[in-house]
Amino acid sequence: MGRYRVVEEGEHVPRIAAAEGFRDFKSVWDDPSNAALRRTRDPCVLNPGDELYVPDKEYKAVVAETGKTHLFVVKQGLLRLRLVVKDVSNEPLSSVPCELRAGASAPAVTLDANGGLDRAIPMQTEACELTLPDRTIGLLVGHLDPLDKPSGQRARLSNLGYFLSDAELGSDEDKAAFRSAIEEFQCDHGLLVDGKCGPATQARLKAIHGC
Amino acid sequence: MNEAPVIEFRRWRPNDIPLAVEPVPAKVATTSSARTAKPARALVERRPETGGTTHSITSGGVTATHRALPLLRARVAPSVSAEPFNTIKQSVVPLACWRAHDLRFEFESSFVLPEMRAEIADLKELIDRHTLTNAQGEAAQRASLTVFGHADPTGNDEFNKALSGRRAQAVYAMLTRKVELWEELHSSPLGNDKWAPRALEAMQRALGLPVSGARSKPGRAALFKAYMDHVCTVRDEFGQPALDAGGQPVVLELKATDFLADGADPGGKGDFQGCGEFNPILMFSAAEQRAFSDPLRKEQRDEENATNRRVLVFLFRPGVRIKAAAWPCPRASEGSAGCRKRFWSDAATRRTFQGKRRTLEDDKDTFACRFYDRLSNNSPCERGLTSFRIRLYDPAGKAIADAPFDLQVGLRKRTAAANADENGVLVANDLELPNRCIVRWGFPPSTPDEKPNLQFTVEMFLTHDDLGEADEARQKLHNIAYDQSRDPEENIAAFQRDYGHLASPPLTRADGELNGPTLELLRAVYARCAQDLRNTPPR
Fold it and tell me: Are A125 and A140 in contact (CB under 8 A)?
């Protein structure tokens, strides 16, 4: 019969699908019951509180002779982490060597000419670290909320270096810092500076941030 | 200790009760609860509410390290398709700050006064504190710097932008010994910011050179360099140059590449800039501003506005450099269009004088520039100055005009000797109003070469907070020359004898008892001294 599952902080469809035993997240995501969610969400950018329909697993029957050895290959869905890293002058960190520490492994990678990183990561990865020559950036994979939510807007503005406050959420200082970040972003990108993250600003934020 | 003549004290604020009788708001003093009859020696330095650590406060400036922001983790989305990615960009956040008050510049000018050497020494210490050392313990990489000049909200925007930019340029040039930038300031005067001839003469005097008239351009360059070296030499309390391990004088000299934009832009974009009047710490109320438009009150307005006229240097993590094109601030010499682009959307409201007086600390909405607001956020250097005045008398009770004095406020270092004005009044600006200060003063020397003899000393109480009546009386009596080291009863009795006739009805007994009428009289006399001081036109 399938059931609805409430998305929690840090969850995304590929990980949920894998946890539920699905090989391919599309088996979950493309289900007709998720059509409404598909209209407004990216499968990797869910909002805590969204309801995802997880269908029943289909069983595949395979006929095989007993007494013989058979090889079954399960193709696991891959999850990728794609980043673009820029410096204070908004220039990409071209060809800079770094380390991506996810769990036990810390492979040395090199950012490409555009400061980009594109790596497959284990499905379970949540907290990891990117170590650059002069600093280390902590990453929370899957914790990016959708753009229409203030939390998602803050996260993107923070990633882009505009929002830097550790004031209590909802406090005056926090609200002022958020407004400042929106306005600075709007100013830098030729948008109307009004301190509100409306559709035009959100669209631009998505384009600049990448998702 | 000589006989201390009468001293009046009051904290300058327009048309209000002098501090002497004003109840001090609870948040100012966090003195210990143990109160005894002994004088309050334990002095409290208020921790800035911004967090961070203040390293030094002098009469002319502050140095501090900002509160470290916790490292937030970047929230990113994974991808299952080729499209989405996450951009992470580093932001520019200052780690520390230095401030020079208006006091260290010639009034309405960009000329740096020799007294700034105290703050330059503190700047050197701050830079050293944030310099990375290599494995051998040698200095390897210095923090990168940028200089911001600020003006007060009087006068027009463009003029203020230009003047504040000139001050930033003057400080930048001095730190990097770029005499050509001082030549530029010299040869293009702006309003009262005219270096020839007074600034040149002041430099010659400071260097002990004969004061001559106009110098040639190469002569000026040599003079500028010598003066810059002079101000940037770290000295001990006797004025002698401090020496390093190798016996060399300790100086502060930086390179253009020590600054945030690497010295790459010929106009200094990213290295030094003026904010004009766009980022004041204090905004008068509309009523105050109207009252101050009276030309007779210009001096008072300038004094109150002094806290806005400042120069800040921010330090960034060693190695951080920004491309000039990526820095939003226009050059110091350019107009304010670039600044306006970065104004808050409600900047018009922020820049208007409103119903009440506003401060950065309390209202947090005095800055018009959003970029500077974020950059300087929570900087311990960006706090309002409190100004207080003390009048100096001789034993006969007559104010000493141009009295030489020095001041030790709270636990800070003693200030360099300066002179009171022609009414014998000295004005001190400080970031905090500590409990006490020690003033030493004397008569002006008869010849200019003579070293002033600061023969009178008094320790004054500046705040009378949370005190019981006995302590309040003791402190106020002390401030009006009934020294607290004497028996309190004797002091009260002496006061009753001296002033009793002023009470109504006149006091009948001089018995040293602090009764109701006596305390009332004391407060009235104290208030009258303060009133008298207030009625003395400033300068």
Answer: no
